């Protein structure tokens, strides 16, 4: 089966069409006067459709702020953010909420599942709330992709941490969002469960054509991505395609060493 997402992914040859999210000269400052902190300092970035992008950098470098601004969870001080063809900077709250609901999936460190609902009910909850009917064929595919077929009637307490996060991944994928943002999605998992979840995120990019942006501290997690963006002091200072865990670790060590000598 060819999905709309995979068509776009393979059909795009660059330019506007292939970009799922775009930031231009984005500045985010908190506070004022002496206590002003510039969390993002004129950031330009294009997030390619059908790619898995990891955002890395030292603590306080602006990773979460960048993700929150790209996802319309936080406002920018100046600059523009586009999601697909829509400029979200300047959208009113109601429109922004609607756009987030319709176009964006989120996976957080805490799985945020409702304990009284079973796995399937948790997966379809956002669509139920939005009054949208899940596409049964797509839902089956998502459930298969994240390896939850035998667990759909289980409540979260009857699932391991890794399985719970797979439910959260399926919940994000089920509505076929244009882009999924993950903030340390494997931060609460042991390395084996983390590897499983990262493997499913990778598969959802390769097999379902999903676009994913993930903030992480972990070079192993970043190695599942197609591209790693490195932030330092609110600026993008480097990027790496086809990353390996060792390559990412070396790059992080470089930044640490430079940070200490500057
Ligand atoms: N609500 C806020 N009010 C004031 N300053 C903030 C706020 N949120 C973030 N900051 C500051 O902005 C900078 C970037 O923070 P951010 O959380 O984006 O960094 P990060 O790279 O995600 O860090 P970590 O890896 O520790 O989560 C930091 O200096 C932080 O202290």
From TrEMBL:
GO cellular component: membrane protein complex; plasma membrane
Superkingdom assignment: Bacteria
GO molecular function: ATP binding; ATP hydrolysis activity; transmembrane transporter activity
Gene3D superfamilies: P-loop containing nucleotide triphosphate hydrolases
Residue intervals of the ABC transporter domain: 21-258
Keywords annotated in UniProt: ATP-binding, Nucleotide-binding, Transport
Cited SMART domains: AAA
SUPFAM superfamilies: P-loop containing nucleoside triphosphate hydrolases
Alphabetical list of CDD domains matching this protein: ABC_MJ0796_LolCDE_FtsE
Protein name per the record: Peptide ABC transporter ATP-binding protein
Organism: Streptomyces roseus
